[in-house]
Amino acid sequence: MSPLSASKDLLDGRPEGSDGIDQLGHVVTGELDLSHGVALYLEDITVSFDGFKALNNLNLAIDAGELRCIIGPNGAGKTTMMDVITGKTRPDSGKAFFGQSIDLTRLSEPEIAHAGIGRKFQKPTIFEQHSVFENLELAMKTDKRVWKSLLAWLSGEQRDRIADTLKLIRLNGEADRPAGLLSHGQKQWLEIGMLLMQEPKLLLLDEPVAGMTDDETMRTAELFVSLAGKHSLVVVEHDMAFVERLGGKVTVLHEGSVLAEGDLATVQNDPRVIEVYLGR
Amino acid sequence: MRTPLSVRFLSALDTKGWLVLGVFLTLTLLVVPLLNLAVPEDSAFHVSAYFITLIGKIMCYALVAVAMDLIWGFGGILSLGHGLFFALGGYAFGMYLMRQIGRDGSYGADLPDFMIFLDWKELPWFWFGSDSFGWAMLLVVLVPALVAFVFGYFAFRSRIKGVYFSIITQALTYAAMLLFFRNETGFGGNNGFTDFKRILGYSITAPETRLVLFGLTALALAATLVFAAWLVKSKFGRVLTAIRDAESRVMFIGYNPLWYKLTIWVISAVLCGIAGALYVPQVGIINPGEMSTANSIEIAIWVAVGGRGTLIGPVIGAFVVNLAKSWFTVSFPEYWLFFLGLLFIIVTLFLPQGLVGLWKKFAARKGVAA
Ligand SMILES: Nc1ncnc2c1ncn2[C@@H]1O[C@H](COP(=O)(O)OP(=O)(O)OP(=O)(O)O)[C@@H](O)[C@H]1O
Ligand SMILES: [Mg+2]
Asked: Which residues does the UniProt record annotate as the domain ABC transporter (chain A) (predicted)?
């Protein structure tokens, strides 16, 4: 079994625990409903920091199973957009829906994670003092209430899942090392592995290949492409070779709103995009 | 196959840990009582009542230090108000001890002396049930738990962190101290509770009672260490340290830090309450001074000196600092606070891992040389 098909086994075919109540015991606004083919829907989102509009009437729709790339100059609002989707930042106005029925503006960060959105930060954020294995263990999809954590004990099946992911992210030799000792690229992979352990429906990846070697970058692209279809992915990147390899639709953000959208070739030839971003 | 809970509990400590614990319990439950009761007082091997009270008191402090390590060392939350929970446990048990005086007080009345002095005719409502040992034990646990839960819930829900949290805990214990200083509050004002006579009907000054209290304190400390070791090795403990190191990551993988912080906060407060309840009958007094801000800061110093996040370090820190303190207060009382300040500065600047860190460094160097 190749590592990539292992990843599919890892993420697919697992029973969904969505019965309208997430594992923190809170009622979410609805089950994840992808029946209309839309995974993520942002409408007229505005976020201002002290009067400065980091997002300005942003509109974006991601289809179920789509792999979307977001590009744009520094400060365009890409990270802020992910903050809105994951509940870290509340928009001043606008709508944000996950599927048809889950209102993201009303849920907390852990509730959104349970609803099925996973996020990789721009700066790799892992638990540096914990071992690589423990990082994956903590991320694994399971009941995350205090009581369950007190009595939690890994089953053989769970250990196997962690082992599979370790192999997939090529860190099986490092399982017991403190994550803080990994190289930058390895940390990026570990964070991606943590994301996979969560079994999310929508993956938000903020500059996932920054600091990776060309070889690592291409393997990451392969992994993402293999995940698309069953999962929706939103990838923010500056690395054009990587974006090209991913092959999906591209959205260009500029000053907090969408400047252009389409396949990479179209966008690259758009004079406005060349002026604000690519031409520099 | 599932691993039974008992096996998981046994794996909380390694073999060396269980051995050290066994030695500790043999010393405190067997050797010390024998040397106190069976060896004549003029023998060099006799263990004095003074020594037993001193070590008993320091073991209570050590228990508080372990509680502080759970929340500070593992949870990354520095409380500068843990003296409050200690005092609440002490007062809760002190109420029972006051009722055990019965009519042997200086006024020969049913009410505690300070109430007669205030010209009160009956017990205030919150003294209800205070003549029952079981009720007192319940209060020892529930009062610190409730105060910690309510305070912690609002503080953690508002995401108050770092130095802001520490300052608020200082304010909390200070406010409680002012409240307990008032005679009308009903806890004996600035004199607090003292002149205890009995506990469960037994004379509180009898050598046997003293030894039982000493032994119970040793057991409580040992049990707390095992419990704490199990806790920090559980997945709960890993989530807790993860919150300490990267809280936002923890939230985005689906844990709600509020409940994790609140759980360890309440556990820590309850442990302090138990320590306070063991402390009061051994020392024979509880007054609002226990809630002073300086007391709570001192708890943090024990933990820092011993080594944060090591569990055993805080026990060592509590012993080292308090043994030094009892020596200073006899020999050079006026220099104690200077010494304490100096110690804190040295530890902060040169020993970030405390004495345990120093020992580890030393052991590692020896290991390399060998
Ligand atoms: N918490 C905040 N307070 C004030 N300003 C902020 C805050 N967060 C973001 N900004 C500002 O909002 C703008 C958008 O920032 P954002 O991080 O979303 O950009 P980005 O597209 O991710 O850029 P980069 O490519 O550099 O990562 C920037 O000008 C930034 O300075
Ligand atoms: Mg960014």
From this structure: 40-280
